[in-house]
From TrEMBL:
It comes from Neisseria sicca VK64. The lineage of its organism: Bacteria, Pseudomonadati, Pseudomonadota, Betaproteobacteria, Neisseriales. It comes from the Bacteria. This is Uncharacterized protein.
Length: 46
């Protein structure tokens, strides 16, 4: 179940980035969001 834990961690990182951007009042553009999602969608190597 290692992949589930990594997916959960990546999900939390994405949420933290989005909340940090909203806190700093810097809305993420769709291009940046897509880039972030593509980065986090990539499987992490052990």
């Amino acid at each position: 179940m290692d992949w589930a834990r990594r997916t959960f961690i990546r999900l939390q990182i994405t949420q933290n980035l989005e909340s940090a951007c909203s806190l700093s009042k810097l809305p993420l553009s769709n291009q940046t969001k897509g880039r972030l999602k593509s980065v986090f969608r990539r499987p992490l190597r052990p």
